[in-house]
Amino acid sequence: NRDEIRNAISSIPIDPSGKEMMCEAVGKSVAWHREYRRGGRRMMLILVTDESGDRQNNNEYLELAIGEAKSQDCRIYCLGRESVFGYPYAHMRWKHPQTGHVHWLPVDRGPETGFVEQLQTNGFHRRYDAFASGFGPYEQTRMARETGGIFFMLPTLESALVRAQGNLDERRYELEAMRAYRPDLRARIEVFADRDRYPLRTLIWKVVSDLDPHNNKAARSVEVRLEFAIDLPSFVRQARENQQKAKLLIGYFGWAQKLLEEGRKLRDQEPEPRWQGNYDIILAQTVAYQARLYEYGVALEEFIKSPKTAPLTKAPNLHLVHWDAHTVKKTRSDESLPYIEKSIELFQTVIDNHPGTPWAARAKWELARGFGVDFVPDYDRPYTKPTGPLIPVPKY
Q1: What is the mean pLDDT of residues 179-207?
Q2: Residues 6 or more apart from 283 whose CB is under 8 A from it?
Q3: pLDDT tens-digit series, residues 18-70
């Protein structure tokens, strides 16, 4: 009875917390309906979701949910979204109906593996892209596989999703090439135990963890400002502060580069193409990010010495709010050239060795970003004061 199903779904109240307790809900749903097995009936659970679920809840309840489903011989079929490549979050565009201000709201959308295997930074700050992984979120695909179900990937585009330039959904990876790069869907505890058997994985996890902007201890050290004040004294103050941060961050990426280069033999001993790809792309990124950060510092210095100008207003009703730092093709210094040349070579190696995969696509995207930095004026509409109570920003 489709109407009965629709009415049941419509009767579910809206949860303002924004947290999806997916794995806990799956386990409790199976346990709640275990009486349906009486009389020889078989059970299946159909999970329809556009998120990967709250990370802490997933960690606590994934294996419990799988165990409950197996005990009831219940297959789990999931209809969900493609995971973000090596990253837990995507961001959705939401425009406030009263103020007109645009918010980029985080949603849980990955990763495709039990633990993140990619850098969580784009070199300047935490990632905001939704670069496609080619696979479903780890928890959903694992639940489906372990219970004999299937994960179905929703094919439709999401117009409000923040995407990486050059990573639009019309581009698809090559199926045959991707088979060798399938994520490890074993239980997290088994994956974790393999760190002792495969030292390269321990090395990569250390680099990823130490440079993770979501790590409260590291966040202040591994992110620099990209929006700067329009009045020169404030710009100079912000620039000097972030030039120092960029200098430290160059050192961090240099440390990571050295660590990875010293572990080159471990890469050659690694049997899995996925982990070889992880090593290759992260090494290339650590070199490229040093070049971009150096160019960032030079661009700030040149702006201080010769400030750019822009109209304070633009038609129809836009006001200059700040200067945005953007990556561009043109570079400003000779000092960054050796790093640029080396990173280009490394990215090209990724493209050649991992064709038709997210690793190659990510390398192409990094090359397309350029290595220079420039400042462009950013305009926005003036703040609109609400006439009634302010509508709260939703939590997706």
Answers
A1: 95
A2: 257, 260, 261, 346
A3: 889 999 999 999 999 999 888 788 999 999 999 999 999 999 999 999 999 99
Is the CB of residue 62 less than 8 Å from the CB of residue 142? yes
Residues 226-236 have pLDDT tens digits of 999 999 999 99
Give CA–CA dist 293/35, Å, rounded: 60
Beta carbons within 10 angstroms of residue 125's beta carbon: 15
Residue among 295, 284, 282, 287 nearest 246 (CA): 295
Q: Which residues fall within 8 angstroms of residue 168, CB to CB, at 6 or more apart? A: none
DSSP symbol at 120: S
Sign of CA pseudo-dihedral 139, 145, 148, 153 = positive
Q: Provide the sign of the torsion angle of the four alpha carbons 46, 48, 51, 56, taken in this order.
A: negative
User: Cα separation of 114 and 45, whole Å?
Assistant: 22
The H-or-E segment that residue 31 falls in is helix 22-32
Model pLDDT for residues 242-258, shown as the tens digit of each residue:
999 999 999 999 999 99
**CA–CA distance from 5 to each of 1, 45, 48 (Å)?**
7, 14, 13
Cα 124 to Cα 299: distance, rounded to the nearest angstrom = 14
Question: Are 379 and 306 spatial neighbours (Cβ–Cβ below 8 Å)?
Answer: no
For residue 115, give both structure tokens.
Answer: 């633990």
CA of 28: how far to CAs of 31, 45, 59, 78, 187, in Å? 5, 11, 16, 16, 20
Residue count (the chain) = 396
Token pair 């960029």 is found at 246
The reported pTM is: 0.94
Rounded to whole angstroms, how far apart are CA atoms 276 and 290? 22
DSSP structure class, residue 6: H
**Which amino acid is residue 184, in one-letter code?**
D
Question: Is residue 31 packed enough to be buried (19+ CB in 10 Å), middle (13-18) or exposed (0-12)?
Answer: middle
Distance, in Å, from the CA atom of 381 to the CA atom of 164, rounded to the nearest integer, reads: 25
Other CB atoms within a 10 A radius of the CB of residue 208 amount to: 21
Quick one: tokens of 133?
């992984």
Residue 120 contacts residue 87 (beta carbons within 8 Å): yes
